[in-house]
Amino acid sequence: MWLGDIGLSVLCGVLLYGVYLASRCLFQVQEGQLGVLINMGKVLCTKESENQPQTFGPGLHYKWPWQRVHKVLMMEQMIDLSGEEGGTTAMASDGTMLRLDSKLRFTPQREHLYHYLFSMERPVEHVKGLFTCLLRNEIANFDQQETTAPSESLPTIPLSALRVGAYAAIRRERRLLNQHIQEFCRLQIGDRYGVRFDGVDLTDILPPEELAQSLNSVMNAQSEAQRLLAQTEAECEQRRQAAEKGLAIARARARAVEDEIGTMAHLLGDLQRNGTLDLYVERRRGEVLADSRISYIKRPS
Fold first, then answer.
1. Could you tell me the domains of the chain?
2. Among 51, 59, 89, 147, which is least packed by CB within 10 angstroms?
3. Do the beta carbons of residue 65 and residue 33 sit within 8 Å?
4. Could you tell me which residue, 69 or 145, shows the higher pLDDT?
């Protein structure tokens, strides 16, 4: 009876150890990932090249118990360099300290996976530091790239950017700056780090507090000047329209008086030709005197 219990315990132990070995021998790779096996501290590579790791796609795979699996995320990854802690500070060519909020999108390359995994201790942090240094260098030399472009294929920055401050030039040519950074990453960095830069987005460029206050004051002054200019133009336009209307009324009255004088002259001429002008003058003189309260008559001396 005692031996039977020992045999049952041994059998249970063997079964448990078998389950443990099975769990150590099987590994699962999720969709969007690749698995790389490390055998006694050395990566398993393909027969074609010693720098090309043997990868395992999504699914369930087998390995030896002493082998260690390293899973790599092959989907596009984003590094967010924004906020008070993640934002990057850089000095422009004129000495202005700027805080930059940016986002970096990159994807590990399968054919250069060895460089991405084993050339850097912490790949994401390394890519982040590399991009930060590159961004600071581009900001510092932004207004000088007209003569020192990194490559002939890169577009040149217009000379108009040299006639304004560095902060204004960077904000105005943000798209061109993004293109410069992306092209530099693609041409100069290449495949040495095993990643492909998909995009660089400068979401915000913030000046120092003193410069921001000055810019706000300038904008407020410009807004106030535009408001006063619009108000003055409206008042002047109103006065001009009133003057034109008054001039039109005066001209109409003058034409009416002219017509009345012409009509009166024509009637008086007819009376003169008919010999009744003296009678008409006497009658009108009588009517005027009748309407007046006091009459002053000058008699001949």
1. 15-73 (no CATH), 77-214 (3.30.479.30)
2. 147
3. no
4. 69
